[in-house]
Amino acid sequence: MDLDSLRADLENLRRGALERIAAASEPAQIDQLSVDLLGKKGELTLVLRGIGGLPAEQRPKVGAIANEVRQAIEGALAERGGELRTGALGRRLQAESVDVTTPGRPIPRGSRHPIIETMAEIAEVFGQFGFVVYESPEVEDDLTNFQMLNIPPDHPARDLWDTMYVDIPEHLLRTHTSPGQIRVMHAERPPIRALLPGRCFRYEATDASHASEFFQVEGLMVDEGTSLADLRGLLDQFAHAMFGADKRTRFRPGYYPFTEPSVAFDVECLICGGRRCPACSHTGWMTILGAGMVHPVVLQYGGIDPERYQGFAFGMGAERIANLRHGVGDLRLYLENDLRFLEQFP
Amino acid sequence: MKVPLSWLRDYVDIDLTPEQLAERLTLLGMEVQSIDRWGGDWQDVVVGELLSVSPHPRADRLSLTTVTIGDGEPLEIVCGATNIAVGQRVPVALPGAVLPGGRRIGRAEKMGVVSNGMLCSGEELRLTSDADGILILAGDAPLGRSISELYGDVVLDVDVKPNRGDALSLIGLAREVSAATGAPVRWPSIDVHEEGPEVGTLLDVEVVEKELCPRFVGRVVNGLSVGPSPDGIQMRLQAAGVRPVSNVVDASNYAMVELGKPTHTFDAAAVHDHRLIVRRARAGERLETLDHVERDLDADTLVIADPAGDLAIAGVMGGAASEVSDKTRDVIIESAIFDPVSIRRTGQRYALRSEASLRFEKGQETRLARIGADRVAALIGEWADGTIARGRVDTNPSEPEPARLPFRPARVNRLTGTDLSHEEQRSLLDRVGIATEEAVAGEMVPVALDPQAALVEPVPGEALVAILPTWRRDLAIEADIAEEVTRVRGYELVPGVTPHEEMPHFRPTPLDVRDAVRQTLSGAGFTEVVSYALVSPRHVDAFRLRNPVPSLDDEPSPGGEPITVTNPLSSQHSVLRTGLIGSLVEVVASNRRHGRDEIAVFEVGKGYAKEGDRPREWWRLGIALAGSRPASWDRPAFPFDLDDAKGVIELVARRMGLGEASYSPELDEPIFHPGRTARISAPGLLGIVGELHPALTEAWDVRAERVIVAELALRGLSAGRPAPVRSVPPPRYPAVERDLAVIVAEDRPIGDVARVLRASGGDLLRDIRLFDLYRGAPLASGEKSVAFRLAFQAEDRTFTETEIDEVVKSVADALGREVGGRLRT
Ligand SMILES: [Zn+2]
């Protein structure tokens, strides 16, 4: 073995290697070539075995040439390998592409009932002012539903509540959430801030604006100085929270046997903004709740001294609030449970 | 109450538009519910004058008229009435006119003659009740003017609250207008021309029940002729919603609308011995009332009788026998005060409520008995040309003085959140006729009266006394004065403040668990429903559980008897449901009928029952599934089955922090499929879940192959909060999983296998999950292979294979021992 033939072998190796690298068509071939050419038992190693037969002074020269060949092969491998890998990825990406305009895979929707949610929202607004939720029975006694609310038997005001009676003596289906006032007063001492949501019943034929079963939210606040002005302040904030801060409100006299003075609370018509339309019976206003200062007799029945304490109560129909907020025109929808209606709600 | 403004103006000047007036009344508490244009529907009906009246050439009963309406050619109109004559002014409906009730008038040929319109009767225009003749208008009615403009009116519909019986009258509402505007109230002048004999010679009254009839005023009018009232009066009554009948009856009704005082007129010829007796009816007595219904009377009924028998149910309805008729010549006027409760009960008992009884029920001012008798006598004298007997029969002429109501202006301010001086409050009260003066020492302020008086002695100099007008029977306590002060001043002027008083102590809301459940289920794709609590008897019977789901916490337990409404609107809603399953099945059924396939719904609601005379209510969660999760373009539809329901129940249990659910077969509930129903139990959760029995699916027309329903009792559903979660840090060492396939007998419930795995897996077993179920070769028939993936986890180390092998071995032993299982290898 002499220097020239070794040099020629190296030169042949380089040429052949570069040709094979150039001819490779898959990244895997490059990996294989890298092993075949430069590996521990690769072709370059084989050629360099001949270096041992050379005189010592010639060896560095061959070493330099071998290095040059190695670098050339490495460079070619890297370059061609890069080219091939990029191409392969590109082909894969292309092969994997999908029609991105197909609809998403549906997740079942689910929804919560608008009336229960409305009551929850009402509770949330008043909750910010310290009102906490209580509940009272739906099958109520006449005493609590009427008499303790200053509506004795044979009182003309009983006409305001068409009542369903049940086969338990002196019991009925509560006509309003107001008996809850009595039950809260029996359970708590002032200061009282209570909210009473729940189902009520009336002897009333069902149509778009009447329901035999419906939901009310009652409020009660009692302390030494709780006044009509507190009531108004809270109701204004409530109306603004539910219907928008720009809505005007109106405070006017109402009538309930269990409040004195009694209040009716209106919000400017949400349809016409107060310009008078059929939806507001051409008044420009929509009544959203009734309220008033708790009648002293009711406080007495609740075990509270009406000279020292006073308070207000209010009661609203959850359906009324939900109608206005969600544009519902027919009360029957709430208990019909047509999923096409209910699934519009979150 | 319907209030024609032209009539109201008799009693008070009104310088406001109808809309303004309506708003002022509403702000005073007299809510105007609508403003109606009475007569607004008479289009193209105008005043005309008859130029000629001649017989129709071909019909005896018709006349041929020519009529001018001021300008243009006179109109030829055919008319069937006989009361017309040349020169009269009459209402002419021109071709194109639309009369009340929608009747259209056109050009029409009548027996060979073209009629260019129609002459109208009072009845056709709903102006009077006279249908026989043409309405003859005043001679100065302007030709061509629209009848609507001349005789139309604006009518307010005022919702008078039950405590303000005094305002169920034009006088009462005039007082409210006066409070709003300051214009004075004008009482009608009541001229009673007494020309007849002393009334005592014509009428004798005995009140037996003085409690029930504290005052009875009678008057007599003789020699009258019954006929229609003057047209103008009939028009007023029509506008006020009262049907004109005859001059005598109209007089009574007119006074009722004007004064709020119901009165009754008897044909004197039908009253034996000129004697009226106010007493209770006797058992067995019968009376034919004005509506020609024969009624059995009872001893709770107050009647007006004569010595021969009953004439009227006092305050509610007169009797047919003594009714004023065309032949009546003499009448007795009854103007009485009755006990409101007695009248109300009687009206309810006989299902008879009249405008009169409605007013009696609310209580009447004593002096109205006198004024009403005078007014009706005067009107009958005038309209029916009768002779009024001298004086009144009056069983109790004393009329009470105005009552005194002491109040503290400072308490008025405390109640209303205002700061009004004594003077301001006094002048406000003055506007509703309430005079005031300084309280006398010792006068007590009524904070409350019935049933338990709370009388407070005021600090000297700090109380006033309201002198209450006799008609204000609604004012009794200090708070009533606060309302008067506030409403006269205007509720709008009550300031709005945010309460600054002490807050109550914290109290958890009872809704926490319910809300968490609702969020969980809606998030899992379920829709919340709210269904009727009142259902049909058939529903309650069909869906009652033999063993109801027991209650948790201290909620009342179900059981006992269903609660039934004694006066239901319909049998469809007459019994309170005892559970939720039936309601949910009905929801599924109705939605299936709409063509809906996928149904996944839940309700958080109450069941009700009674135990003896004690009502009970309890909260339950109900779930129903039917149909399938729909297919998407690359996935098949998933029909719902029992395991979907169990899965969502387990989800709820996990979210609520309740324990692991276990199931046991329920074979014995008739509403359920006996092979596809389980009782569930977990710490804090009890319930039943299963497929509805196919017989019920069919009976309730559900139109779904399978309906899966569940009813659950949940800890805290009635009032509770989910317990705070106790967390553990995530494990630092990896879990090790082992798959075990266990061969057991076919009839061995998988639940048993799972129970053994849990019990024998030791402390390190964290989780087991069923992942395969296999039947067939190489297993013997009657065997199945149940494969679970077991996850082991230690806090402090990674397991060695040997450790796990040991656990698996003891699990395998336990399986062999307890469920006859062997591992499949
Ligand atoms: Zn409007």
Give the class of chain A from helix and strand content and strand pairing: alpha+beta
Reported by name, the CATH topology of the largest domain in chain B is BirA Bifunctional Protein, domain 2
What is the number of independent domains of chain B? 6
Distance between the termini of chain A: 88 Å
Over all CA atoms, what is the radius of gyration of chain A? 44 Å
What does the largest sheet of chain B look like? Answer: 7 strands, mixed
Order of helices and strands of chain A: HHHHHEEHEHEEHEEEHEHHH
Number of helices of chain A: 12
**Stretches of chain A where pLDDT falls below 50 for ≥5 residues?**
none
Rounded radius of gyration of chain B (Å): 41 Å
The largest sheet of chain A is: 7 strands, mixed
CATH homologous superfamily of the largest domain in chain B?
Bira Bifunctional Protein, Domain 2
Please name the CATH topology of the largest domain in chain A: BirA Bifunctional Protein, domain 2
Q: What can you see in these coordinates?
A:
The complex is a heterodimer of chains A (346) and B (825). Chain A is of the alpha+beta class and 346 residues long. Helix content of chain A is 42%, strand content 18%. Chain A has 2 domains: 3-95; 114-342, BirA Bifunctional Protein, domain 2. Chain A has helices at residues 3-23, 27-38, 43-48, 59-96, 114-127, 142-145, 179-187, 228-243, 296-301, 318-326, 332-336, 339-342, and strands at residues 132-133, 139-141, 171-173, 192-201, 213-223, 249-253, 259-268, 285-294, 310-317. The longest helix of chain A is centred in the N-terminal third of the chain and has 38 residues, at 59-96. Chain A is rod-shaped, with a radius of gyration of 44 Å. By secondary structure, chain B is an alpha+beta fold. Chain B folds into 6 domains: 2-39 and 154-181, Phenylalanyl-tRNA Synthetase, Chain B, domain 1, CATH 3.30.56; 45-151, Beta Barrel (OB fold (Dihydrolipoamide Acetyltransferase, E2P)), CATH 2.40.50; 194-394, Phenylalanyl-trna Synthetase, Chain B, domain 3 (Phenylalanyl-tRNA Synthetase, Chain B, domain 3, 3-Layer(bba) Sandwich), CATH 3.50.40.10; 404-493, Phenylalanyl-tRNA Synthetase, Chain B, domain 1; 512-714, 2-Layer Sandwich (BirA Bifunctional Protein, domain 2); 736-823, 2-Layer Sandwich (Alpha-Beta Plaits). Chain B contains 19 helices and 44 strands. In chain B, helix 7 (340-349) crosses helix 8. Chain B is elongated, with a radius of gyration of 41 Å. The relative contact order of chain B is 0.06. The model of chain B has no long low-confidence stretch (mean pLDDT 93). At the A-B interface, helix 5, strand 1, strand 4, strand 5 and helix 8 of A face helix 2, strand 2, helix 7, helix 10 and helix 12 of B. Bound molecules: zinc ion (ZN).
